[in-house]
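Lecture notes, unit on protein representations.

Consider one protein chain, 451 amino acids long.
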Amino acid sequence: MFLAGRTALRISAGTCLENVPLWCVRRALHLKAGPGSSQPPLFDRHRPNATGKSAAFSVGAPTTEEVFGRNSLRGYLRHLEREYSAALERLSLCQASLETEGKEGSRALQKRVSELAPVATELLQLRNKEQELQDIQTLLKDDDADLKRLAESEESSCQATIQALKAKILSLLIPSEEVNNNDLILEMTAGVGGQESMLFTAEMFEMYQSYAAFKDWHFEVLEYCHSELGGLRHAAASVSGQGSYRHMKYEGGVHRVQRVPRTEKQGRTHTSTMTVAVLPQPTEIELTISPKDLRIETKRASGAGGQHVNTTDSAVRILHIPTGVVAECQQQRSQLKNREQAMQRLRAKLYSMKLEEEISQRQQARRIQIGTRGRSEKIRTYNFPQDRVTDHRIGKSLYNLKDFMLGEELLDEMVEELKSLADSECLFEFLENMQRRQDEQGMNDNLSKPQ
């Protein structure tokens, strides 16, 4: 798995097809596909080439046609159609006579029918359009010139509709994961490289702050610890808004910068790192913390801040005793506000630990975002001499680093590409496992036949 925080869908080879829930396939089948086309370009506008246009090096997401060409997916969709028809028939019998299934069975059938209805409806439209396309292609072989011209005009429209229906079907298979709708806590820490690492951390903090404004999210600074030369030792911010965690979760990890530092006298290029942690912010329902499990301490704030520093006990440190997790805040002048923000960070850390534990129990892969902060554990490199930013997880490079650091269109493009290819990876893993299951089931059937 190439993405931190991304969970791959794993279906064992012996799993029965009827036991594969619809949400599992939804999780795997998120593609960057729009009506009429689904293949993202392998070239973009960010690096001038010989023709005056730009190129980016990346592996594109699979097309909709490539996905529908998989026998395993087509077989699963046929299974969903059969299950939908059977559920409708059983539901009608259940409604006629409650003794057949009982009230509980009726509610379960109604729920399953409502889950399958959108996919089944689009599949029916797709079958009808595919038949219509076959009829049109038959007319193209007719000797009548007027009839052929009419068929040609209808053919392109029908193909576009089929492509849009296929993309719609795949989009209907995508679940709405609860954690994707959460807000987040963004934590940033300088890594290897001394003052240069701290200076780069400050620039990265500004980039994500600009990206939040670009996406119309709310960005609130919870902690900001300066370095001597105006850099940033570590910082934390609360980010909230539509789709904030869904977009930002792939930014967690080690970011590497290669450039000539402002402190370098001989013009040598240095390599430094900083780390980003993206923690989903839980709701009150998702995580409950008992007050008896907390140890709350106050102290005098340190650092820049005027008269309020070292004169009042406004800084707050909260320890969660069962886990040993600590959260601190001294950003505000008010002890009450610092306590509130420290509690917010503590909840995010504990919720992230809870999610990781659940994923581990389901034996699904997840990389730890922070690592050792070493130079070799990078997820992305910012190479200033070459004016290039490269994401090593997907092999994508963009040029015009100055615009990328503005936190607007270029950063958003990289984020979207990460989302798309993460879903593509899960899709192909799911299809490979399903194909392996079908192959093994076929072998078992052959062995069980009498000789």
